[in-house]
Amino acid sequence: MKQIDVCLTPDLLDLHRMENTIVVVADVFRATSCMVTAFAYGVKSIVPVATIEECQRYQERGFLAAAERNAQKVEGFELDNSPFTYMDERIRGLDVAMTTTNGTLAITKSRSAVKVLVGSFLNLEAIASYLRTEPYDVLVLCAGWKGRVNLEDTLFAGALVERLKTSYALAEDSAIMAGRLYEQGKDNLIGFMANASHIRRLQKLGIQKDITYCLQHDLYDVIPVLRGTSLVAMEP
């Protein structure tokens, strides 16, 4: 039977096998939620890069550029790390380069997998439906926060585990833990996460609306997938 596993932080990725595996990267607050939103609004591609310098080089080539560090926009770039920034028809058909504190690094670390998908609560069922049809194992890679485990990405992993539990065997305890955590908190995720570290960071910046938005389930059917060095929308 196919297996689903959860890597709680990219710093643990070397402990997980990547062969015959689809990796689903989750950075709920807010990189992967931004990416899903951007594709829902018609962006052509997103190039995830690990460093600000790489992002600047793409910007010089004519890409729209998004850079975030420590939950704030980096000066000199057009786009920030709020999903509401990407709800703009002007991005339709354009190429974006993006670097964030955690999410883009997690994506670039996953390139040896069979496929790399971008997951969020916003496209949770789209991801689950696609994976049910695939023959590969699944690894949910939680972007975390600077190498540390965080609550929101672990909850997403648990939500995906719950939706796939009849199609996949749970590989390790991290998948069991994530599933049980989501089961405990799913009826009120905002309340369940009230004291989470990244919630506190974002609230200090006055962006409660981003938190609420990113925890909504199943808004979009889009699945960003890594093709070479670029994310594109998977064809239906």
From TrEMBL:
Catalytic activity: (2R)-O-phospho-3-sulfolactate + H2O = (2R)-3-sulfolactate + phosphate
Species the sequence originates in: Spirosoma rhododendri
Record's protein name: Probable 2-phosphosulfolactate phosphatase
Keywords from the UniProt entry: Hydrolase, Magnesium
Enzyme class per UniProt: hydrolase
Cofactor(s) it depends on: Mg(2+)
GO MF term list: 2-phosphosulfolactate phosphatase activity; magnesium ion binding; sulfopyruvate decarboxylase activity
A Pfam family per the record: 2-ph_phosp
Family: Belongs to the ComB family.
Superkingdom classification of source: Bacteria
E.C. no: 3.1.3.71
InterPro entries: ComB-like, ComB-like_sf
